[in-house]
Amino acid sequence: MTAQNEPADKGPEIDPASQAPASGDAAAPADPLLALQAQLAEAQAKATEHYDQLLRTRAEAENIRRRAQEDVSKAHKFGIESFAESLVPVKDSLEAALAQQEQTLEIMREGVESTLKQLSSAFERNRLIEIAPAAGEKFDPHQHQAISSVPSDQPANTVVQTLQKGYLIADRVLRPALVMVSAGQG
User: Fold this and answer.
1) Where does the record place the region Disordered (predicted)?
2) For the chain, which has fewer Cβ within 10 Å, the N-terminal or C-terminal residue?
C-alpha cells in the first residue's frame, strides 16, 4: 500500500530562472522586461531619427518650391529685359530725330530708314519673326487671319493680298497676318 501512495521519483528539482535560454544566446538578458525596454529605446531612437529626416526633407522641398517660385517671378518680371535693351537705341534715334529743328524731307526719310533698321535688328536678336505672306502663298490658318474671300485668278485658299504683317516669337504666333484670300475662279 505504501508503493501506491508514494510519489514516483521525479529527479532533482530545477529552478526555471536559472536555466540557460534554449536558443543558445548566452548574451540575452535574464529579464524579458529589460530586453523589451532596450528594443523600445532603440525603436524610439530610430523613429526620432526618421522624423528628423522627414522634417529636413520637407524643409528642403519647401525651399526648392520657394526658390522656383521666385525664379518664375523674376522670369516674368525681367523676361523682356533683353528685348527692352534692344529697343532703347530705337527710342533714342526717334527722340534725336524729333529734336532736330530744321530738317529736309530727305534727311528725315534717311533717319526713319535707319531707325527701322535698328528696330528690325532688335526683332531679329530677340527672335521676333515677321509673317508677311506673298500673293499666291497657301493660306495657313495658324499664322494668317482671313479678312475676306475674293474672287481671283489664283487657286482657292491662297493669299491674294497681305493687309497687315503678323509676327512670331520663336514658334508662337504673337499676331497673325491679316490677309485677303482667293475664293477661286470668279
Assistant:
1) 1-31
2) N
